[in-house]
Write a sequence for this structure.
């Protein structure tokens, strides 16, 4: 088992990455159905929380069937982050996670996310204040460094552990890389196998198949892996990895009907959470991923992303099932 404070996870847990405009309750629901072990909210602005911004507060929605789940926060001001952590603790998540890894300009250029990799003393002070402010386990997600000249994750891991974080997730790229080029797990392995490190170390980056997940486990001895983009439109990756780790067998991909059924569940949960109008609108970004690789799919995708009528979406999904089952 893996222990994060008082939270107990199974051996080699699979974690779903916090992704802006993706990791909402409807998406988390379908991933949970497919076996993910740990969920996170979308990353939440500390400034938005302390100012009662509706969008930030909505991201605090968590549900009992999602547990264990962490609330992830980002921000550049130490006081605001401390106050936001106190607010987040009131919704009773299982952990508070701090984002020191987001590379996008609107976050990093404001001194938050991966920007803190350029100011380790401030990162340590911010983390320390949050650890002292809440009773929940505090964890961190970060990157190897700001760029190739400052790949300082070993120092970061030791210093954050020393002031009380309970687990660390490392994305195997620098901020400068964004999401380009292959993830480098070498330093993730060095952190995990550092004799000074005793907290769980989770690896993130380019886990796109069960075989790769097993390779990272065996090669770098990480305590678990976090998946992000590979799960978008394909939550089955969690059950596939678990099955492969247990049996060494590769599961067949989901059937067309499974794709349709899970897509429909995702849509229904989206409507339950946001109401019919917004639920349908926000689901549009997912259709292409659920039916990725299907030939001559453009017309059906256009129908799905242009209608705001629930019945028409159901009809289109039913039609997809009829047409493509004949092709198969």
């Amino acid at each position: 088992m893996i222990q994060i404070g008082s939270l107990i996870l199974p051996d080699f847990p699979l974690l779903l990455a916090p992704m802006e405009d993706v990791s909402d309750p409807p998406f988390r629901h379908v991933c949970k159905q497919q076996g993910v072990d740990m969920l996170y909210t979308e990353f939440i602005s500390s400034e938005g929380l302390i100012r009662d911004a509706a969008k930030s507060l909505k991201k605090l929605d968590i549900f009992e069937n999602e547990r264990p789940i962490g609330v992830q926060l980002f921000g550049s001001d130490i006081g605001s982050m401390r106050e936001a952590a106190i607010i987040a603790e009131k919704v009773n998540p299982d952990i508070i996670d701090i984002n020191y890894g987001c590379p996008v300009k609107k976050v990093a250029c404001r001194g938050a996310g991966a920007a803190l990799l350029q100011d380790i003393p401030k990162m340590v002070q911010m983390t320390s204040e949050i650890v002292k402010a809440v009773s929940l386990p505090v964890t961190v997600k970060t990157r190897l460094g700001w760029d190739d000249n400052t790949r300082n994750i070993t120092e970061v891991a030791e210093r954050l552990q020393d002031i009380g974080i309970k687990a660390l997730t490392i994305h195997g790229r620098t901020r400068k890389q964004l999401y380009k080029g292959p993830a480098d797990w070498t330093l993730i392995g060095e952190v995990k196998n550092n004799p000074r490190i005793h907290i769980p170390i989770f690896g993130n980056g380019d886990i796109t198949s069960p075989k790769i997940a097993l390779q990272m486990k065996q090669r770098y001895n990480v305590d678990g892996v976090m998946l992000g983009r590979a799960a978008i439109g394909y939550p089955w990756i969690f059950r596939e990895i678990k099955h492969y780790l247990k049996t060494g067998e590769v599961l067949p991909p989901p059937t067309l009907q499974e794709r349709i059924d899970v897509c429909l569940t995702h849509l229904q949960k989206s409507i339950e959470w946001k109401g019919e109008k917004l639920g349908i609108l926000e689901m549009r970004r997912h259709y292409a991923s659920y039916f990725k690789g299907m030939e001559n799919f453009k017309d059906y995708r256009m129908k799905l992303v242009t209608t705001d009528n629930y019945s028409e979406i159901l009809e289109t999904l039913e039609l997809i099932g009829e047409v493509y089952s004949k092709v198969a």
Notes: The domain at 2-247 is CATH 3.20.20.70 (TIM Barrel). The mean pLDDT is 94. DSSP finds 15 helices and eleven strands in the chain.
